[in-house]
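Quick review question:
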């Protein structure tokens, strides 16, 4: 299994978590809206938040480190499997029936074990990514709610949900600043 697949999986999980966050962001400030008066709307760019936050990078690095041994084991298992397949293809004509059958069984077993390892790896990385992302965005929601209350925002939406916004309503830098101070 190549590192790019792992990186793509982690990136996909991060995007899924960001989308989940974006869907729930309105609830974080729903109770701050006044009954009357002008409506004040803010926008937060989740991608910029993830890219600019040292805490998000630290979480990503922590997860990579946590799963690097298992990833290395999968890479080694994949390499071993390919070597066995190459050996079988190269020597099939000159192998005895018993030896060929034994190697075919080893290959079948190795493929099954590798598929199981990869499935468990994907599930475990998804679970850990979700756990860490939820912790991260819990802190972000608290900060957003605080900004919404102190600056009297009626609504703060995700930039992904808004086709256009003026930079004056972008609170991403404020959130990043408070998030980095909290770290």
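Suggested answer, residue by residue:
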């Amino acid at each position: 299994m190549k590192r790019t697949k792992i990186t793509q999986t982690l990136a996909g999980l991060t995007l899924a978590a960001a989308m989940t966050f974006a869907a729930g962001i309105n609830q974080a400030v729903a109770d701050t809206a006044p009954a009357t008066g002008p409506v004040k709307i803010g926008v937060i760019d989740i991608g910029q938040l993830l890219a600019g936050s040292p805490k998000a990078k630290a979480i990503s690095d922590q997860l990579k480190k946590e799963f690097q041994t298992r990833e290395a084991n999968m890479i080694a298992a994949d390499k071993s499997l390919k070597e066995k397949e190459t050996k079988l293809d190269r020597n099939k004509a000159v192998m005895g029936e018993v030896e060929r059958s034994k190697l075919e069984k080893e290959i079948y077993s190795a493929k099954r074990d590798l598929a199981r390892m990869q499935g468990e790896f994907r599930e475990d990385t998804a679970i850990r990514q979700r756990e860490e992302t939820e912790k991260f965005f819990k802190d972000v929601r608290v900060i957003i709610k605080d900004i919404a209350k102190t600056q009297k925002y009626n609504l703060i939406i995700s930039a992904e949900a808004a086709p256009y916004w003026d930079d004056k309503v972008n609170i991403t830098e404020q959130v990043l600043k408070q998030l980095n101070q909290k770290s």
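Why it works: The chain has one domain: 3-182. The CA atoms of residues 44 and 158 lie 5 Å apart.
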